[in-house]
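#lab-general

N.A. 3:47 PM
ok so I finally got the sequence cleaned up, no stray characters, all 347 residues accounted for. can someone with queue access submit it? mine expired

B.Y. 3:52 PM
send it over

N.A. 3:53 PM
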Amino acid sequence: MFRFISLLCVALFTTGSISAQQDQTYAEKLGWPKNAKVVILHVDDAGMSWSSNQGAIKSIENGVATSSSIMMTTPWAASYAKYAIAHPQMDAGLHLTLTSEWDNYRWVALSGKKLAPGLTDKEGAMWESVEEVIAHATPEEVDAEIREQLDRAVTLGLTPTHLDSHMGTLFASEAFLMKYIQLGIEKQIPVMFPGGNNKLLTAPVLEKLKAGGKWKEGMDMPAPYDRKKTMALGKMIWDAGLPVLDDLHTNSGDWNPENAVAKSPEWSKFKTKKCMEALKDMLPGLAMIIVHSSDISDVFQHISGSGGSRYADMMAMMDPELKAFIQKEGIILTTWREVMERRRKVK
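B.Y. 4:20 PM
back already:
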């Protein structure tokens, strides 16, 4: 704990000197060539359903996706964890979950209602929205819950390759974010954190702010997009022995063409095109691009209306056109497993 607090103090009080320390990308620090684009193509929401598991597996085994993470609070989490254990080279992290967003398909906090009342809504499940979690949960409850989720994974026999955050809830509160980072540092498990150029991360937010007239040139970005803070925290995480991302892409769920129809080739090709655009737009460095692949069944429509988008994500990951583009552009695909192995070798 003392080490974490010391690192945090150093990071937050040295933001003025951060720019000088960013001559190298984190990809370069990890041993990749200068100007290389290194990418983790990541599938979120494994464990949420059988369809979600199949989508993640097919995206990785038959496509270009390289990584995945499991929602340990959800019904099919054990199934995916056991699959990952049986395939030890597979990247499988924890999609730390504090919300239960669907109307009739709900899950509960592993720490329980009595120990985590602030994480529990009137139905006894987790809150539906990030805002409700922020309003009701304490940092201590969040810390206890994410530790329970890690404990369940370990109990199943899984060694998580990394930690990340479902719906970005752990990034929506500075106090929650600190608990997340602290857990990663304590357990020496990589945490998904963008501490570099953050071009892909901030671009859609900037567009929305400009469109609404709420941002002008020279203004600071709102948290968690304030680059001075993210760079400082990135340095803290790096100095604690963990890898850091240069950039993060989170809005593939918005890649929806007009008049989109579930399982249509047009939607899948649209996603392929948008993924290629993101890869083209990213700056050199280590980036993570998130998708939500699902091989949707008839049952999935009773879980969520997002099935069409998720199916298109899966098909885009398996699209030969995307694979050919990645090879043509010289983009290097990697995993959290490889990233952490490289970090251990850097002094």
